[in-house]
């Protein structure tokens, strides 16, 4: 009986250590989102305030990558490019 309890406690401790090694399960809450907008709008100066370097990265836009088929679909949907020569040349490729 003691051996089973001891084994269960060991397993529980190992699980806790593994969870701590992985890190938090939820994304950190960006507190003061309005304050970040105010920081950027007042002259464009760089003010750290409450924010760490990690939260500054959350506001930076990342470049998006699309493939050729997605671009073709987008061009077909837009009125300006639906009948363009570029679109028809790409159909031939």
From TrEMBL:
PANTHER family registered for this protein in UniProt: TRANSCRIPTION INITIATION FACTOR TFIID SUBUNIT 4
Localization, UniProt: Nucleus
Q: What is its main location?
A: nucleus
Q: Which one GO biological process term can you cite for this protein? A: transcription initiation at RNA polymerase II promoter
Gene from which this protein is expressed: LOC113513173
Q: Which UniProt keywords apply?
A: Nucleus, Transcription, Transcription regulation
Q: Coiled-coil intervals in this record?
A: none
Q: Which Pfam families match?
A: TAF4
The protein here is known as Transcription initiation factor TFIID subunit 4-like
Q: Which GO terms describe its molecular function?
A: DNA binding; protein heterodimerization activity; RNA polymerase II general transcription initiation factor activity
Give yes or no: UniProt keyword Transcription regulation.
Answer: yes
Q: One cellular component GO annotation, for this chain's record?
A: transcription factor TFIID complex
Per the UniProt entry, the signal peptide is none
Similarity comment: family membership: Belongs to the TAF4 family.
| Domain Transcription initiation factor TFIID component TAF4 C-terminal, chain residue ranges per copy | 1-89
